[in-house]
């Protein structure tokens, strides 16, 4: 999956984790049937999604960080913690032409409830609980999340 993920959208999440594919995500994966992987984000209170080809970049980045850590005298366990976060806290996200499914484990890790805010981040995308997103330390992102939540509320009023 070499597409770039650009845009954002709030989607309803059914009890079984089924979600209508956000338009921007659908555009990015339309010509590619490769699997989508979902993981707990390493730094933020959200999930991150990407294609299988992204795993190579993760492994390379983790190796660079391992070497840097060794040079600084970092405990080797930090590397293994990072590897578990990168590869064990990952799940496949099944999808068809119209819907994708977020597993119960990933919904739990991402604190995803009835709604999910999908956000394009270039070669990956994030999935946020919108109530958590409006508390993010990134001011512009908070404004976007608040706008999407407000738009969701006004749709329900009609």
Helix-and-strand structural type:
alpha+beta
- Overall pLDDT confidence: 89
Per DSSP, the total helix count is 6
Oligomerization state: single chain
Major beta sheet summary: 6 strands, antiparallel
Helix content: 40-55%
Uncertain segments are: none
Strand segment tally: 8
Q: Walk across the major sheet and give the strand order.
A: 1-7-8-4-3-5
Radius of gyration: 17 Å
What is the strand content?
15-25%
Question: In whole angstroms, how far apart are the ends?
Answer: 38 Å
Order of SSEs, N→C? EEHEEHHEEHEEHH
Please state the overall shape, judged from the principal axes of the Cα atoms. globular
What features would you describe in this structure?
This protein has helices spanning about 25-30, 55-70, 75-90, 105-110, 130-135, 140-155, and strands spanning about 10, 20, 35-40, 45-50, 90-95, 100, 115-120, 125-130. With about 160 residues, the protein is of the alpha+beta class. The strands form 2 sheets. Strands 1-7-8-4-3-5 form a 6-stranded antiparallel β-sheet, sandwiched between helices. It has a two-stranded antiparallel sheet with strand order 2-6. Helix 2 packs antiparallel against helix 3. It is globular and about 55 Å long.
């Amino acid at each position: 999956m070499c597409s770039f993920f650009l845009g954002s959208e709030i989607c309803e999440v059914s009890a079984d984790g089924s979600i209508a594919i956000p338009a921007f995500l659908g555009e990015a994966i339309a010509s590619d049937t490769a699997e989508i992987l979902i993981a707990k984000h390493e730094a933020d209170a959200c999930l991150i999604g990407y294609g299988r080809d992204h795993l190579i970049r993760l492994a390379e980045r983790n190796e660079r960080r391992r070497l840097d850590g060794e040079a600084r005298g970092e405990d080797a366990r930090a590397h293994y913690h990072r590897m578990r976060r990168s590869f064990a806290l990952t799940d496949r996200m099944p999808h068809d032409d119209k819907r994708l499914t977020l597993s119960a484990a990933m919904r739990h890790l991402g604190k995803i409830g009835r709604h999910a805010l999908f956000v394009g981040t270039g070669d990956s995308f994030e999935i946020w609980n919108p109530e958590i997103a409006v508390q993010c330390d990134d001011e512009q992102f908070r404004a976007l999340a608040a706008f999407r939540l407000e738009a969701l509320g006004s749709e329900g009023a009609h």
